[in-house]
Amino acid sequence: MVNVFALSFTGCGVCFKIGQDYDLNVGDFQIFRAAVMFLVMSAGFPMLKIHPVKDLPISNKWVVALRSFFGVMCFLTYNIALTLIPLAFVIILQNLAPFWTAILASWLNKEPIFLLEYLSMFACLTLIIIMSTANADESSVSLPGILVAIASSFCMSGLQITNRRLKGTSFLVLNWWHSILGFIFPFIGFGIYAWVN
């Protein structure tokens, strides 16, 4: 399942990079993605006999909203980073998410971090730094792009931490709410931005 996610995340990045040649912007891509996600998730409810409102864990409604926020911000910052630095570099920096996830899981979910995990994180972080600086064309890499890609990896870890808190809640329900919030808030935000400019 993780490999499917990794391929789909990279596939979205490739689609966005191709779309940039046709003047696709981050806001349009986010709204389109949320609309498609809403339709796909809605189609699954009758098959699995799940209801998006009745099966929403009321005691965790704020965690669901926070999960949606992290998911939308992860997608937006990921695509903004793609406008600033090359795709391969964004993916390398996106792989910092396990570090933030381990640290946040320890703080928020009281999950232990073992010595082997610390050693593995150190080795991976060293390799990420080496890979990201080895053949980086300085004209195509910018500090704002790097910072936005790191912010995207942090949002990805927030998404994983909230997923863990919502263990047992249907994937369809979580992504249905994610798609609604992922459509409404960017639509309003980008609409206001377009209106002002």
Mean pLDDT: 82
- Number of strand segments: 0
Distance from first to last alpha carbon: 42 Å
Strand content: under 5%
- Secondary structure tally, helices: 8
> Total domains, how many?
1
Shape: globular
Return the string of H and E elements. HHHHHHHH
What does this structure look like?
The protein is mainly α. The chain has one domain. Helices cover 79% and strands 0% of the residues. It is built from eight helices and no strands. Helix 2 packs antiparallel against helix 8 and helix 3 runs antiparallel to helix 7. It is globular, with a radius of gyration of 18 Å. The model has no long low-confidence stretch (mean pLDDT 82).
SSE layout and pairing:
Blueprint: H1 2-20, H2 26-48, H3 61-84, H4 87-94, H5 97-108, H6 115-134, H7 143-165, H8 171-196
Helix pairs in contact: 1-3, 2-8, 3-7, 3-8, 4-7, 5-7
Task: Write a concise keyword list for the protein shown above.
197 residues; mainly alpha; globular
Put the structure in a nutshell.
The chain is an all-alpha fold and 197 residues long. The chain contains eight helices and no strands. It has helices spanning 2-20, 26-48, 61-84, 87-94, 97-108, 115-134, 143-165, 171-196.
